[in-house]
Task: inverse folding
């Protein structure tokens, strides 16, 4: 009997061991699958992290402010990605061009340019492989204002191209990268020389502050207290600039070529609605507080306005139709939280008004600091954005605020216009 019990015990023990091993195998396979999926998602981002580390000499994961700025930009590019790739793949399949020229307008000197360009090239390369075609030559032209740090970007280009070749094989390319400094509110390229134009978070900036808004005292953008003449002046400046933008691109893009731009917009017909204006009103509040403390002259604040505009869908569509050179293929809307870390993919996100306020303030500082320094002086900046950070944090306690974004996909009309 004792021998029988020992035998049954040994059999049960072996069975339990087999089950443990099977469970472990399943767990390992599941973990491997998760790692593979995560690796695939991070692959496109890894080149950007490496390049930024080379450019700016910091480890990208060391500071939350760097991550806050990058998170917002990556989220916008990620949400626009399906539309960009859809347009570029459709264009490639209709032309099978042996030399593909891509221009990125308002490229800046951060991660935005390289990530977007990398994804555009990926889309073309994967599509040509499906057809069994040879790789086209790529010409990439990076554009921004002359003050942009092109030299810093160019330092990263050899590594960028080397990585593309390593990932895609010796048959890839070649890929040539050049810079074109200048305002995109004017001609930048030769006639019919560009296949595809991309621009992200640039075309909502105006060529200048609208004229005739001296009566917008105490505000730095359109606000609920702005006179109607201020609303009208901003709209007229947007129409003038966007028409000039389209006129210039209509000369440069080949017939049938594509253009995809992402800008901040608004759903409301009211240009002073909170959805597009309140983030600037909170900055104006911080400036007014500094005026009351004697840190800023009231006249200085009264003469400062931001050169940007968040249009409605109707205003964008009307401008494209009136200019007449492009078919409007698609105009899609998507939202991005002010604190880009607060998203459905970030399961570990816990709201902290101080941290969220700082993240949003850092993003807005990156956009506005040079304008503010030129007008008010550098000495106010730290105090200003500390106050602004606190204002934003308090507001986010009450409301989850979002940027409204438009992805605008256009095709250059073929033949002469009527």
Result:
């Amino acid at each position: 009997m004792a021998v029988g019990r020992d035998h049954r015990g040994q059999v049960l023990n072996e069975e339990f061991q087999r089950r443990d091993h099977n469970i472990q195998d399943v767990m390992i396979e599941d973990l491997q699958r998760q790692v593979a999926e995560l690796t695939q998602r991070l692959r496109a981002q890894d080149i950007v992290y490496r390049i930024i580390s080379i450019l700016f000499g910091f480890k990208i994961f060391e500071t939350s402010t760097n991550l806050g700025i990058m998170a917002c930009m990556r989220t916008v590019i990620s949400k626009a990605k399906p539309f960009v790739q859809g347009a570029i793949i459709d264009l490639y399949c209709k032309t099978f061009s042996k030399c593909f020229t891509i221009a990125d307008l308002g490229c800046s000197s951060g991660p935005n340019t390289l990530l977007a360009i990398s994804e555009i090239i990926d889309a073309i390369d994967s599509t040509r492989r499906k057809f069994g075609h040879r790789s086209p030559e790529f010409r990439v032209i990076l554009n921004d204002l002359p003050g942009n740090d092109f030299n810093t970007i160019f330092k990263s280009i050899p590594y960028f191209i080397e990585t593309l070749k390593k990932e895609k094989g010796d048959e890839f390319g070649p890929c040539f990268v050049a810079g074109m400094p200048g305002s995109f509110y004017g001609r930048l390229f030769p006639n019919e020389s560009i296949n595809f134009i991309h621009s992200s978070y640039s075309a909502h900036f105006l060529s200048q502050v609208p004229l005739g808004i001296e009566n917008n005292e105490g505000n730095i953008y359109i606000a609920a207290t702005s006179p109607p003449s201020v609303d009208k002046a901003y709209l007229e400046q947007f129409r003038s600039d966007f028409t000039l933008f389209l006129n210039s691109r209509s000369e440069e893009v080949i017939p049938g070529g594509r253009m995809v731009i992402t800008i901040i917009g608004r759903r409301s017909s009211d240009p002073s609605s909170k959805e597009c204006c309140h983030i600037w009103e909170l900055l104006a509040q911080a400036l007014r507080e500094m005026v009351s403390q004697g840190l800023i002259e009231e006249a200085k604040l009264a003469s400062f306005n931001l050169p940007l505009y968040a249009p409605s869908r109707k205003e964008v569509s009307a401008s494209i139709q009136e200019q007449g050179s492009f078919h409007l293929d698609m105009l899609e809307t998507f939202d991005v939280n002010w604190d880009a870390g607060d998203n459905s993919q970030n399961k570990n996100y816990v709201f902290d008004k101080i941290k969220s306020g700082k993240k949003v303030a850092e993003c807005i500082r990156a956009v506005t600091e040079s304008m503010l320094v030129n007008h008010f002086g550098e000495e106010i900046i730290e105090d200003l954005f500390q106050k602004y950070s606190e204002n934003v944090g308090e507001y986010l306690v009450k409301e989850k605020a979002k940027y409204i974004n438009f992805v605008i996909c256009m095709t250059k009309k073929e033949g002469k216009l009527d």
Q: What stands out?
A: The chain has one domain: 64-412. Confidence is low (pLDDT under 50) at residues 34-67. The first strand starts at residue 99 and ends at 105. The chain has ten helices and seven strands.
